[in-house]
Amino acid sequence: MDAYHLFLLLFGGFFIGIIGSMFGIGGGLFAVPLFHFGFGLDLHQSIAASLVGIVASSMMSAMAKVHLGVLSIRLSKVLEIPSITGAIFGSLVIGALPINLLKILFSVVGFSMAFNMLKNPFKIVLGKQVRKHYIPADTKGEFADHYRDPSNGKTVRFEAQNIKWAVPISLSAGFLSSILGIGGGIVNVPLITQLCKCPIKVASATSGYKLGITACAGSVVYFAKGYIVPDVTLTFSLGILAGSYLGMAILLRTKPILVELFFGLLLTAVTLKMVLSI
How many other C-beta atoms lie within 10 A of the C-beta of residue 265? Predict the structure, then answer.
């Protein structure tokens, strides 16, 4: 690949790193089409390069998010195993299921999640009182945590709820992600905010961390099969590292209500794309 295309790839990785780090979606939703349609890689090579980029993005943003306390490692550890299990199961049964039925199911759930994400921003526009997604907590429970929000200088205290329901739903999220080829963060972030009652920034950080662990396992498999294209993967990873750092800084300094708004719009767009593909 010539220098011009490598520069474009570096810039693309930078942009995808910003979006992926801000919203905890990894970036595969944009990276795979970029590689496949924009640079002519076959689908397996595109997925492989995307997975390596997701690992780079996740590790870069996780280092700072752990330091600031916005990443809930305890919650991530509980949800990671069922999510991976669901993804593995989905890959095994993908040929035996009616894909359109699953797309309809995802569309219904997706629009519902997007509606709940966008309720607070719309209430602000209408001048109504906003209800927090998360439950403020001063307890010392197993899933109680806190972080300092640079956007307003306040300490946010929260405690993850409904863990017994979050585990099977996380398994379903991994399953849907594997079957439909969607980014797991599109399901993980609404799951952590709306069911586990965590702040949106915690949901984004935790989702990004989870995706990095999952993508690491997939990267090893694709590397063993020879699908890694060295110059493309390295250039993209450098771009996504820089973009992830900037995206993390933007996330921490952006008001939570704006993060909810942008993620809700992104989820709506992904769901509409799913509906149109039925």
Answer: 14
Q: What is d(CA 222, CA 278) in angstroms, rounded to the nearest whole number?
A: 29
Summarised one tens digit per residue, pLDDT across range 183-203 is: 667 778 888 888 888 888 888
Q: For residue 100, what are its two tokens?
A: 């359109």
Model pLDDT, residue 66: 65
pTM over the 0.85 mark: no
φ/ψ (deg, to 5) at 253: -100, 0
In degrees to the nearest 10, what's the CA dihedral of 173, 167, 196, 52?
A: -50
Mapped onto helix, strand or coil, the DSSP state of residue 158 is: strand
SS3 state of residue 154: strand
CA distances to 20, 112, 159, 184 from 163, in Å: 25, 21, 11, 18
Length of the chain counted residue by residue: 278
What is the b/e burial string over 203-241, where b = at least 16 CB atoms within 10 angstroms of the residue's CB? Answer: bbbbbbbbbbbbbeebbeebeeeebbbeebbbbbbbbbb
Asked if the model's pLDDT at residue 40 lies above 60, the reply is yes
| Alpha-carbon gap, residue 102 to 86, rounded angstroms | 14
Residue 88 structure tokens: 């593995």
Query: If you average pLDDT over residues 249-259, what whole number do you get?
Result: 83
pLDDT (0 to 100) of residue 14: 93
